[in-house]
Design brief:
- The chain has helices at about 20-25, 45-60, 110-125, 140-150, 170-175; strands at about 5, 10-15, 65-70, 75-85, 95-100, 130-135, 150-160, 160-170.
- The strands form two sheets. It has a five-stranded antiparallel sheet, with helices on both faces. A three-stranded antiparallel sheet has the order 6-8-7.
- The chain has about 180 residues and is an alpha+beta fold.
- The relative contact order is 0.15.
Length: about 180
Amino acid sequence: MKIFVETERFLLREMLEIDAPGLYELDSDPEVHRYLGNKPISDMETCYRVVANVRQQYQDNGIGRWSVIDKASGAFVGWSGLKYETNLRAGKRYYDIGYRLLRKYWGRGIASETAAAALRYGFETLQYPEICAAAQVANIGSNRVLQKIGLQCIEQFDYEGAPTNWYRLSRSEWALAQ
């Protein structure tokens, strides 16, 4: 098992099949999917496919989302981290930062803590020139996280009928802010 990043409270490690039950709890929750197209999953098999897909991203792109594990309890909290995105915006390929947490962990600063750690890893370790993100305008919490970690909203676009903010941050802009 590879740990990519460690924060004060969490381990951000490779996603493993043992995370499938936690992914099911996460992605079957309609409230978690409120700003993700309202398509919660309904079977465990989908979770195993998600894990396999993320692990394939590690091989194909050298990066993929990481499981967030609470250091104190060992509990699966959700996922966070970077992904090489090729599908969200037609014609754009970019390194995306994202996070998704079990609802019982919302409001505790976990998304900000883990996303900031992933951003640092992307710029310092992987030397990415820029990192981007998208969040529906209505998803106030996610927009706050992206702004808190330093990304700048540079435009809005329509994604599947929902107004969506587009964020970016370059490595040089990030370095100046440190």
